[in-house]
Amino acid sequence: KAGVTQTPRYLIKTRGQQVTLSCSPISGHRSVSWYQQTPGQGLQFLFEYFSETQRNKGNFPGRFSGRQFSNSRSEMNVSTLELGDSALYLCASSLWQGSNEQFFGPGTRLTVL
Amino acid sequence: GESVGLHLPTLSVQEGDNSIINCAYSNSASDYFIWYKQESGKGPQFIIDIRSNMDKRQGQRVTVLLNKTVKHLSLQIAATQPGDSAVYFCAEMGSGIQGAQKLVFGQGTRLTINP
Question: Predicted confidence band at A85 (pLDDT cuts at 50, 70, 90)?
Fold first, then answer.
């Protein structure tokens, strides 16, 4: 069974731009969660989608948004990029909402210049 | 508030020895505590979890201990191997908006296995 895939793997943007990251969950998994990982803040929860609906969100500004499609694939968008948005963005899928066992993708490394 | 933290940022052990990674948590209302392993260039990987009403759970070469009195969680890895070198995160399943559960991760401990 294929794992979680994320595209692109690396991305360089400049301040003020926007970016869209994509995540394809494991086949059959209906929940997709997004995390931001930085050396200073560690792994922080962004939001979780299940059945195309946002079920939970973390403490991030409204510039961070996401969506989930009917095939469970998910995208997250960051608008008006700031230098501090440079991070590894991880997507994780699970069978159900709020699962302990989440399967992470390799992440998208975003660098904001 | 909710926070999960680790006592030590780095840990080095000899191959074949046992290792213990510690974690402190503050949210005593969490139902589950979980350990994840992250190897370089990869996303975190689930290792083992423990429900809050348990104090010990064993897996393959790993044991998780939960001490709710002092809000302490530990991961023991027996007979360490080079492949165990990674960053280990403890996490708790805490409540987000409208009571929905979300994973709250600690800062991580880097474990290095020396040959």
Answer: very high
